[in-house]
């Protein structure tokens, strides 16, 4: 069971937390998870009742790598990366308004690999290389893209120097307002 996008007030409500833990304790669900970013995700991790954390994590959304993922991983939580391909916002054909924040971020970050044919594979492998990430959510309506992404996942983590280059560019160019995207 995933609790999606709660605010801090919902996480502080003992009745909400009781319903979730009772469902797990009664065997109605095996695990309880949370889908959140930023301060809500951090508060939830620190509560210690959730089994999984689903959070925004990609080449264009790295706040969680420092803020929540290490703490969630240390608690033994399963970490699910959402928006793991940053909505493929670098693709010229992607004019979806939902991807606009990522399109702006990627323009500013100007990752050299985004001009390569294997950009999606590199982006996905980056997300899967984050220590503690157990799964990455990927959405597509095109069978060919599904096959490409499945193949990329089999290639394993990025080489350390590629992963660190992406992290370094993020540290140099990310604005403090670039928080996890819902």
Write up this protein.
- The protein is of the alpha/beta class and 182 residues long.
- It has one domain: Alpha-Beta Barrel (TIM Barrel), CATH 3.20.20.100.
- The protein is built from nine helices and five strands.
- The chain has helices spanning 8-11, 14-25, 38-47, 63-67, 69-74, 100-109, 119-129, 143-154, 160-173; strands spanning 2-4, 33-35, 52-56, 78-82, 133-136.
- Strands 1-2-3-4-5 form a five-stranded parallel sheet.
- Helix 3 (38-47) links the parallel strand 2 and strand 3 (52-56).
- The model has no long low-confidence stretch (mean pLDDT 94).
Which spans have pLDDT < 50 for at least 5 consecutive residues?
none
Q: Give the integer mean of the pLDDT values.
A: 94
Structural class: alpha/beta
Write the H/E string, N to C.
Answer: EHHEHEHHEHHEHH
According to CATH, the homologous superfamily is NADP-dependent oxidoreductase domain
Strand content: 5-15%
Instruction: Supply the number of structural domains.
Output: 1
CATH architecture: Alpha-Beta Barrel
CATH topology: TIM Barrel
Helix content class = 40-55%
Total count of strands: 5
Which CATH class applies here?
Answer: Alpha Beta
C-alpha geometry? globular
Strand order of the largest sheet: 1-2-3-4-5
Spatial separation of the terminal alpha carbons: 18 Å
Largest sheet: 5 strands, parallel
Q: Total helix count? A: 9
């Amino acid at each position: 069971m995933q609790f999606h996008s709660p605010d801090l007030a919902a996480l502080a409500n003992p009745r909400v937390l009781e319903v979730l833990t009772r469902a797990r304790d009664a065997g109605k669900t095996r695990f309880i998870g949370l889908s959140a970013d930023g301060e809500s995700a951090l508060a939830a991790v620190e509560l210690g009742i959730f089994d999984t954390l689903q959070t925004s994590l990609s080449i264009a959304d790295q706040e969680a790598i420092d803020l929540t993922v290490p703490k969630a991983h240390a608690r033994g939580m399963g970490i699910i990366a959402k928006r793991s391909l940053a909505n493929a916002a670098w693709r010229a054909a992607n004019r979806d308004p939902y991807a606009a924040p990522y399109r702006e971020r990627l323009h500013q970050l100007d990752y050299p690999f985004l001009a390569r044919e294997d950009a999606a594979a590199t982006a996905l492998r980056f997300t899967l290389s984050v220590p503690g990430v157990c799964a990455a959510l990927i959405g597509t309506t095109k069978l060919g893209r599904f096959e490409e992404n499945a193949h990329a996942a089999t290639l394993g983590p990025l080489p350390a120097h590629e992963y660190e280059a992406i992290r370094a560019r993020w540290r140099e160019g990310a604005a403090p307002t670039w928080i996890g995207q819902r």
